[in-house]
Amino acid sequence: MAAWSASMQLASVWIAALLTLCIFSFLYKDNPFYKFAEYLVVGVSAGYYTVIFYFNYIKPNLVDHLLDATYPNRWLLIVPTILGFMLLARIIPKYAWISRFSLAIYLGAGAGLAIPRDMDGLIMQQVHTTIVSLYPLTETGAFDLSLFFQNVLLAIGVITTLIYFFFSMEHKGAIGKSARVGIVFIMISFGATFGYTVMGRISLLIGRVTFLLKDWLHLID
Prior knowledge:
The chain is mostly helical. The chain contains 6 helices and no strands.
């Protein structure tokens, strides 16, 4: 049993290493090895998430309730079941129009649920956090100079950024200068977001290179 476990572990390391090299081969050019690894990832991911969605959502929320005779109004669940199967009509071009009814209900209900939630969770909360005091006090009642500069910088950034997106007036004079300041804040925000994204990708690259050199080739400890 121990030998079998060790063999399986060694095989998994080799498979992972070869698939990693297949993905890295795209750095040279598009090739069949990269396409094989790409299609494998897509296929395995689709199969994995199909099983996850079934056991986490479809089975407990639909199948189990339909089979439970004590569940109230269980036959009403047939309606979303039919709507779900109507989506599969898109597979057949001749009957693809049937899926439009399900899509219309899904998108309409989704928009109705998402808009109030996003308005409260994103827009209103963001507006609330930008309303700051320009005379901040510490817990002891003293003037907080550090927080004052922070709030002033926040106020300037919010106001000048909004001015940049205010197109009802030509960006000249004071409006133009304020808009250029807003551009600085926007670029800082974009730069920080891009840098964070690059760091995340670099950390993934470091992880795969470390795997190849340590777990596969044993060149480092």
